[in-house]
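Predict the structure of Adenine phosphoribosyltransferase.
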Amino acid sequence: MGSCRYNVDSSKAKRDSMFDPKDYIRTVPDWPKPGVQFRDITTLLSNGPVFRQLIDTFIDRYQPVGLDAVVGIDARGFILGAPLAYQLGLAFVPVRKQGKLPFDTFEEAYELEYGEAILQVHADALDPGQRVLVIDDLVATGGTLMAACKLVQRLGADVHECAAIVDLPALGGSQAVLDAGFGFHALCQYEGD
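Done. Here is the predicted structure for Adenine phosphoribosyltransferase.
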């Protein structure tokens, strides 16, 4: 077992507003292909107090908003969305890759760098008019996030905001989300990578 290398006291009454996830995210050069700087959040997640601070940071932002559900995108959005929904007392809705949900679904195709993929959500996952947060770990080109937002809209719910730990603004995803009329919030950015 590895030891905890970071000391983050998330039991403080007032949470640390200086928390920067970049301090705990590992950059892996040339993965999955040459020239890519992969932002690995597993180093953030593997530290219990830091993971708690991460979720607490999202709680501080979304607790006063009056949401009905948190939509987490397969798979790392589940890691963030489920504990956030739990702490806020909200429904958690998984948006899954094609073929993973057993009931009637809506689906949305989106472009990948090397082809196309499909996301699905159960047809009864949300009610019309519900206010929803859509969350994932990282936003690059925005295709996955936009597909999830379209699924939420097809169910008649409203996307209050989209959230992520990491934004890669040079790849245009966060701007595409904003241009589509959705709010967007990321805890940190990596410029030019």
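The longest helix spans residues 48-62.
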